[in-house]
Design brief:
Blueprint lengths: L10 E8 L8 E7 L11 E5 L14 H12 L3 E5 L11 H15 L1 H4 L6 E6 L1 H11 L4 H4 L14 E5 L8 H7 L16 H6 L7 H6 L19 H9 L6 E4 L28 E2 L2 E2 L14
Parallel strand pairs: 3-4, 3-5, 5-6, 6-7
Antiparallel strand pairs: 1-2, 2-4, 8-9
Helix pairs in contact: 2-4
């Protein structure tokens, strides 16, 4: 049993597990809670994908921000995995999403070895990590994004829930949206520039590679099944919602990033029980908890 100042929840942990062998970045940290009161059977798993604009030095699976997420999931009775992936200084799209999908396949393949439920896997990401988690959820079964050659090609990379915080969505239209938003106009880096994080992610200025930008966009992969859910959000996020309903409940929360996206909303699961989670506005290196300093438990919807 392990407890630390950063992760006070009793747990077991395995650090720097390699899920692929192309890059030294392809590693993950895995945490499983020791005590799960009022629960029977193995816990579900929440995979955290860090942000940082896909840039070297801006995010890591083990920094205090990432570990803060891990502790939240453990305290709610869930196993947690925090993953690293190739950044734009090493490789361009689709390497990042291929790494994320490969990590999910590895985690599913090793679930019984480490003691969590391979059928109950959700993913959480913020900023560029949120973009990757949204793409993970929306592009299930798209061969070009799977990275099957990286490992465990016969294992599914599907997830039961995507929880995305202030993600980069619709890269081709992002500059237009930002320049028209009073909160951002004149205060943001033009993502269309060659040296912007998004252009580095794609490997070329966004507007010069529209096909690649669309392939990297979660809203390119809408769920084919009709939905009648009412979505009280601006159109750009409505499109994201409609791209993701097949994986179940989708929750998005406002952060201090440049893209305020309103109050959380959800969809009813279409593939069985789905975790319900609410993450509140991030502040500094910690979290602003709900009234009463109480985090809601993830429960089946």
């Amino acid at each position: 049993m392990i407890t630390t100042r950063q992760i006070p929840t009793p747990h077991r942990q395995w650090l720097n597990l390699a899920y692929a062998a192309v890059s030294s970045a392809e590693k993950l940290d895995l945490y499983v809670p020791i005590h799960r009161q009022a629960h029977s059977g193995p816990p579900g798993l929440v995979v955290y994908v860090h942000g940082g604009a896909w840039l070297e030095g801006q995010g890591d699976k083990a920094n205090p921000w990432s570990v803060g997420f891990v502790n939240i999931f453990l305290s709610l009775g869930y196993a947690a995995a925090s993953i690293n992936y190739r950044l734009s200084n090493q490789a361009h799209f689709p390497a990042q999403i291929q790494d994320v999908k490969t990590a999910v396949r590895w985690l599913r393949a090793h679930a019984r070895e480490y003691g969590y439920d391979p059928t109950e896997i959700a993913a959480v990401g913020d900023s560029s990590g949120g973009q990757l988690v949204a793409l993970l959820g929306a592009s299930e079964g798209v061969p070009a994004l799977e990275g099957a050659s990286l490992g465990n090609p016969r294992v599914s990379s599907s997830i039961k829930a995507a929880i995305v915080l202030y993600p980069d969505i619709n890269l081709l239209a992002e500059e237009t949206w930002l320049s028209q938003n009073p909160a951002c106009a004149g205060k943001h880096l033009n993502p269309d520039l060659a040296d912007s994080p998004a252009s580095k992610y794609l490997g070329a200025p966004i507007q010069t590679v529209p096909g690649r930008a669309k392939a990297a966009d979660p809203i390119t992969y809408p769920d084919p099944r009709p939905t009648t859910d009412e979505i009280p959000h601006r159109a750009r996020h409505t499109r994201l919602h409609r791209a993701l309903p097949g994986i179940g409940r989708v929750l998005r929360c406002a952060g201090q990033g440049r893209r305020p996206i309103g109050r959380p909303a959800d969809h009813r699961a279409r593939r069985g029980p789905l975790p319900r989670i609410q993450l509140h506005r991030a502040q500094g290196t910690g979290f602003q908890t709900p009234p009463g300093n109480h985090w809601p438990r993830l429960e089946a919807g």
